[in-house]
Amino acid sequence: MADGLLPDVSFGEDAERASAAYDLAIPVEKSLVVDWDGAEKLWKHAIGLSGFRSSRIIVTTGVLAPKATRERLVRTCAAMGFADVHCGVAPVLALFGAGYTTGCVVDCGLESSRVVPVYDGYALPHAIVVDPSLGGLSVDAHAARILETAGLAFRNNEAALRAGEVLKIRAATVGIPEAGTTVELPLKCLAASSRHRQVVEIGVDERAAMGETLFVPQVANRSIESPGLAGVVLAAVTKCSIDLRRAMYEGIFLVGGGSLIPGLPERLDVDLNHLAAANVDVQVTALENRKFAAFLGASVVADLPDFASNWISREDAEDDVALAARLDQTSYNC
Ligand SMILES: Nc1ncnc2c1ncn2[C@@H]1O[C@H](COP(=O)(O)OP(=O)(O)OP(=O)(O)O)[C@@H](O)[C@H]1O
């Protein structure tokens, strides 16, 4: 709730600066919209900031989002004034951006990692595996524990996770870093206070332990049941029919911000080559711009003439029956 001088609703850093005056709302949790009113305000704000109101928009949902969520998202975009909307699947768009229509997309996100086998432009829903133990937040939590072990104290869990994320982005590796370097981080950047020190030192074992949590999550917590990143890829590929498995192993595409930890693509390649049949040559592709892969893919396909049939017009979006039918035609196809 805002006082008289502040706007009723505020976003991002503006809201943080005046955090005492507002109730915090997080409209999307675990890739699902939990507060539509808040989400609509956020989207209108973001689209307004982008400085243009294009006549078409591509939106994406979580890979296994219910149809009702996709319907509401399309209807919301139409109500915002867009003439045509496409509701896509981010990993499929990412694959298209790399120039392929078949492959196995490994998307390392904030709250989970998901493996999405795609054949001929269609995600194979029965083979999708989502693992919440392998999201960036899990690595942040482990990094925060490393900082606490080093003697830092945080105001609350959120502050600890934020500091953990900073440490992860600056220092995490998969495997012992070749240079064998200890990293010194200014305490200021970790937003933690200490009367005695200005920097915190993170050794090579701690650096490698952060990345290791994605491959052996039990490093962070022995009760986690996840088989790790290579294990979930194996699980997803195994759910594909036998004749598709080779194409999946030979076309692994790593995307998402969580995959940027140095050494991660190489380790996934090694682990998968151990797990796959001896006569399969696993190929892991990790493009430099993979954090933005879905956006880049969407911007490529949006202009393709072949994509025209995937747009849902505002008229169809406003008619419940037509919208449901159009989403069925385009749900896993981009
Ligand atoms: N350079 C980096 N090194 C390691 N991790 C990074 C780096 N940059 C971003 N990340 C992590 O990437 C994650 C976010 O990735 P991405 O933007 O692909 O997620 P998302 O698809 O929005 O997530 P979700 O769908 O799970 O909400 C965060 O955990 C963030 O800390």
From TrEMBL:
It comes from the Eukaryota. The lineage of its organism: Eukaryota, Sar, Stramenopiles, Ochrophyta, Pelagophyceae. InterPro entries: Actin (IPR004000), ATPase_NBD (IPR043129). It catalyses: ATP + H2O = ADP + phosphate + H(+). Belongs to the actin family. It holds the Pfam family Actin. This is Actin.
